[in-house]
Amino acid sequence: MRFEKGRNKTGGKQKGTKNKTTLIFENLLIENRAELLSKAIELAKQGNERILLKLLDKIVPTLNSVENKGIDGIPNIRILIENPSDTMASNK
Predict the structure, then answer these.
(1) What pLDDT does residue 11 have?
(2) For residue range 57-90, what is the model confidence (pLDDT) as tens digits?
(3) What percentage of the chain carries pLDDT values higher than 90?
(4) Largest Cα span, the chain
(5) CA 67 to CA 64: how far, in whole Å?
(6) For 32-55, what is the mean pLDDT?
(7) Which one, 62, 73, 80, 82, has least CB within 10 Å?
(8) DSSP secondary structure of the chain
């Protein structure tokens, strides 16, 4: 069978259709998002630098969207991370 030049492609998935595995993974993330976020915050507080940077990347606005900039155009950001041993000592 020979195809004509310039003939439109027919059949197949529509452009942008998600793969079944992607859909399953997205549903798992949506169903467990509260627990996953809590765990990520817990790990960041324990000093996991990689998680902390990922969380900050999502939480802290980009420099272009910040109106109140500090010295040299960099926003003033204050991050407080409690030491778990300090928290336990104050709860006694």
Answers:
(1) 76
(2) 877 765 555 455 566 666 666 666 666 565 555 4
(3) 22
(4) 82
(5) 8
(6) 90
(7) 80
(8) --PPTTPPP-SSPPTTPPPHHHHHHHHHHHHTHHHHHHHHHHHHHTT-HHHHHHHHHHHSPPGGG-SS--GGGPPP-------HHHHHHHH-
User: Side chain identity at 19, as an amino acid letter?
Assistant: N
Q: Is the pLDDT reported for residue 31 higher than 90?
A: yes
Specify the number of domains making up the chain: 1
Q: Has residue 7 been placed in a domain? A: no
Q: Token pair of 21, please? A: 């595995």
End-to-end CA distance of the chain: give it in Å, rounded: 82
Distance (Å, whole) CA 36 – CA 72 = 36
